[in-house]
Amino acid sequence: MKETTKQKDIDFEAALKALEGLVEQMERGELTLEQSLQCFEQGVALTRESQQALTAAEQRVEILLEKNAQADPVPFAQADNAADTD
Predict the structure, then answer these.
(1) CATH code for the domain in which residue 56 is found
(2) Residue 33 Cα distances to 22, 26, 59, angstroms
(3) Residue 3 pLDDT > 80, yes or no?
(4) Which pTM value belongs to this model?
């Protein structure tokens, strides 16, 4: 099952960069109507995939928190310092 999941995984940062590129192209106003529609369609697809990636990440965090529900939350900076002292 992991193999299927990895095939569907999206590089969130790459998708965000692609979305930014599409927006820049469209904002220049140099595209034909058809090209603009194609960019829009790509943007919608990337947005949906990115939302799925965010939802999956949120679910993973919730699962991790459930596994260690007794743990006290620690800000990242303190967590880094605590790891250095261990």
Answers:
(1) 1.10.287
(2) 14, 10, 39
(3) no
(4) 0.60
Q: Look at residues 60, 41, 42 and name the one whose alpha carbon lies nearest to residue 52.
A: 60
The DSSP code sequence of 25-69 is HHHHT-S-HHHHHHHHHHHHHHHHHHHHHHHHHHHHHHHHHHHTT
Give the length of the chain. 86
Tokens of 14: 């790459």
Domain that residue 69 falls in? 2-85
What is the number of domains present in the chain?
1
pLDDT at residue 10 in the model: 61
Which H/E stretch holds residue 11? Answer: none
